[in-house]
């Protein structure tokens, strides 16, 4: 089950990232569920769906696509509430307790009976209709060997690292991705392991830890 402190942190991070892309993102009203459609299709490619050829499921890439889908899902929820984070949080937690039976296009789908590809297809269909289902997304995570803690770690880590890169010259080309003999992704994993991931200042503490490591090793 998604914990409220984790949900609060992810919504705050997503709001900040959207504002970094465009300070007027609420007025721009980007179609975030359109991105969910595309990411869902990419997830199907990583899973493998072509019956006429041999394919192997790339689980790591499939998990990454789910993290991307979650980014846009959070953006959609925030936009629905015009970036009011407390209201978005209430909405998200309510959605987490939704029904795993989904009525769509004149049919009722029992989420737990669907295989991974059918879940992805249903997610895409819902997104096309301007809808989301958190229980469906959670079932997809289970298929991909993830729980909410795994998603939280991957989501927060990616967001904080992206902010850190931008703040240290990534766009200008002056950021050094390798420091102390290792890539920044490796430093990220170590820094996260040393912190309380349920602390309300987790993302700030993670950023500070990366900054300390970076300044020490550069």
Structure notes:
It is a single chain. This protein has 218 residues and is mainly alpha-helical. It has 2 domains: 4-144, all-alpha NTP pyrophosphatase fold (Orthogonal Bundle); 149-217. It has 10 helices and 4 strands. It has helices spanning 4-21, 25-28, 32-47, 59-80, 85-96, 116-128, 134-143, 148-167, 184-193, 202-217; strands at residues 101-104, 107-110, 178-179, 182-183. The chain has a two-stranded antiparallel ribbon with strand order 1-2. It has a two-stranded antiparallel ribbon with strand order 3-4. A hairpin with a 2-residue loop joins strand 3 (178-179) and strand 4. Helix 1 crosses helix 4 (59-80) and helix 3 packs antiparallel against helix 4 (59-80). The radius of gyration is 18 Å and the shape is globular. The N and C termini lie far apart (40 Å).
What does the secondary structure layout of this molecule look like, with pairings?
Layout: H1 4-21, H2 25-28, H3 32-47, H4 59-80, H5 85-96, E1 101-104, E2 107-110, H6 116-128, H7 134-143, H8 148-167, E3 178-179, E4 182-183, H9 184-193, H10 202-217
Helix pairs in contact: 1-4, 1-5, 1-8, 3-4, 3-6, 4-5, 6-7, 8-10, 9-10
């Amino acid at each position: 089950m998604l914990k409220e402190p984790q949900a609060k942190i992810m919504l705050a991070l997503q709001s900040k990232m959207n504002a970094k892309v465009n300070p007027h993102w609420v007025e721009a009203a980007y179609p975030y569920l359109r991105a969910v459609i595309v990411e869902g299709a990419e997830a199907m490619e990583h899973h493998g769906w072509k019956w006429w050829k041999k394919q192997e499921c790339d689980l790591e890439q499939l998990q990454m696509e789910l993290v991307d889908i979650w980014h846009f899902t959070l953006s959609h929820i925030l936009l629905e509430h015009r970036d009011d984070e407390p209201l978005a949080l209430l909405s998200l937690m309510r959605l987490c307790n939704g029904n795993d039976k989904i009525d769509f296009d004149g049919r009722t789908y029992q989420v737990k009976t669907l295989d991974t590809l059918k879940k992805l297809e249903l997610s895409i269909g819902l997104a096309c209709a301007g809808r989301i289902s958190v229980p469906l997304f959670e079932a997809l995570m289970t298929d991909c060997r993830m729980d909410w803690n795994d998603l939280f770690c991957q989501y927060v880590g990616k967001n904080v690292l992206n902010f850190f890169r931008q703040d240290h010259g990534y766009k200008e080309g002056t950021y050094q991705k390798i420091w102390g003999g290792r890539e920044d992704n490796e430093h990220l994993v170590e820094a996260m392991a040393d912190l309380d991931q349920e602390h309300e200042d987790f993302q700030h503490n993670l950023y500070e830890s990366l900054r300390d490591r970076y300044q020490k090793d550069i």
